[in-house]
Amino acid sequence: MEAVLTHLRGAIERGEYAIGDKLPSEAELCRQLEVSRPVLREALRALQVMGLTQSRTGKGTFVIANAVEDPTFGDYAASDLLEVRRHVEIPVAGYAAARRTPENLDHLAHLLDRMERETDTTAWVAMDTLFHLAVAEAAQNPVFRRVIEEIRDALARQSAFLNELGGRREQSNREHRAIVEALIDGSEHDAVEAMSHHLDRVETTLTDIVRSPRTTSSTEGGPEA
């Protein structure tokens, strides 16, 4: 999927598909790129998240931009989502370290164990959002949980995007483990530092994905099958 995405994104950014152009049909792209339809559809979804294309029901996929600026996850732009997460989740981690109950710690530890064993990305993404909800619950303020609930769909979309294109799962597990260990220790400072580091890594991975592949030569052809 990454190879298909890189190829299509490069073609758009080099102007081979101009703004307003309609991409070839799924059947034609599958034939050209020698990939399955599920793989192609994942790549097309990623192009939409990046803001390069728009799917119009019954009409096809159209190019709407020639450069990636700010990916969108559900109702929220990545930059807006990260800004809010920093202002909410970092202090929440500190509150959680001070206020967590034994039940909160048991729940988080169990969830983290499941995440570290999970190999299916879809299942892992679902648990990723549950993890951040559980940290908010440990802060013992229902408003924090409500805020995370509001952005839960965007968090899931972002998590799936980062895992598909940035290979974030194992690194994220380690970062989650550091957060839980800080909560177990009851260290507000360490919890804040651990959550801050986690969000820093999220931002770094997003930035790496968004960087333009314009240097890819248009003569290189499509991805390998």
Automatic annotation (TrEMBL):
InterPro entries: GntR_C (IPR011711), TF_FadR/GntR_C (IPR008920), Tscrpt_reg_HTH_GntR (IPR000524), WH-like_DNA-bd_sf (IPR036388), WH_DNA-bd_sf (IPR036390). PROSITE patterns: HTH_GNTR. It comes from the Bacteria. Pfam families: FCD, GntR. Keywords: DNA-binding, Transcription, Transcription regulation. Residues 1-66 form the HTH gntR-type domain. This is FadR/GntR family transcriptional regulator.
